[in-house]
Amino acid sequence: MFGMLKENTVNQLKLLALAGCLGLWGCASMDTPNTSSAQIPKEEASFEDKSKARDKFKDGLQFLSLNMLKEAIGSIQDAARLDPHNSAYPLYIGAIHYSEGNLDAAESVFLEVLEMDSDNKDAYRKLGRLYLEQGRWSQAAHYLEEDLKRPGTPMPHTVYNWLALSYYNLKRFDEAERQWLLALDIAENADIRYNLGLAFKFNEKFDKALESFELAARMKPEFAPAHFESALLYLKKQNFTQARRHFESVVRLEATGERSDMSREYLNLISSQ
């Protein structure tokens, strides 16, 4: 993941420069910082230093567009030194490290931002997502909870989904279920429906699990895992017709792999009935 910046990262930062605004929201792959909740200290940088900082930041974006990562970070660090109370600059540095897979450096920067501004939602969300990627479930849950405690979360259903995944891996299935239901109240999503089905299944709410898996499969017909889980639950109910239909979908969608192998075995068993 090191080396050349991902194209979508460069394009996002280009768009930010064109907009002339540090408060734009990015896509799911890399959030752009929102400084609306930042705590502004009494002693702010001078107007001249703020202007120089913006110029340095624009230079950083230009370096990013040329895939000159070291120079980009250097320029944005210069911007942060000129305007040290503007959390947008270190947030971008952390986001660049994150996009390049340098998670330790990203974590360090995001934690420094929270030392500057303990109410910075962006830093909480970015840390939560980083810990989620590392499988540090307790830390992920904590920081995502802190994000959601503060108003103005963009795309909150995404954060509810991340928080639910953290709870799920902590075996806090009831809490995971609640978070996924909150996410679905905001926006329907096949992946979240599937995740909710898993929570229902582990809580032995098999009818609700089947309903969720079926919905996921209808919303995304190529979603082989949803078909497979649906088939298993139909098999449990001895509804062999529906089980066959979903197992056949798995085999059609996945020519090889554990799911398709198991589906073929189950289809043979059903045929022998």
Automatic annotation (TrEMBL):
Residue ranges of TPR repeats: 87-120, 190-223
Signal peptide per UniProt: none
One protein family per Pfam: TPR_16
Domain of life assignment: Bacteria
Assigned keywords, A-Z: Repeat, TPR repeat
Record flagged with keyword Repeat: yes
Entry keyword annotation includes Repeat: yes
Name the UniProt record assigns to this protein: Tetratricopeptide repeat protein
Organism for this UniProt entry: Candidatus Nitrohelix vancouverensis
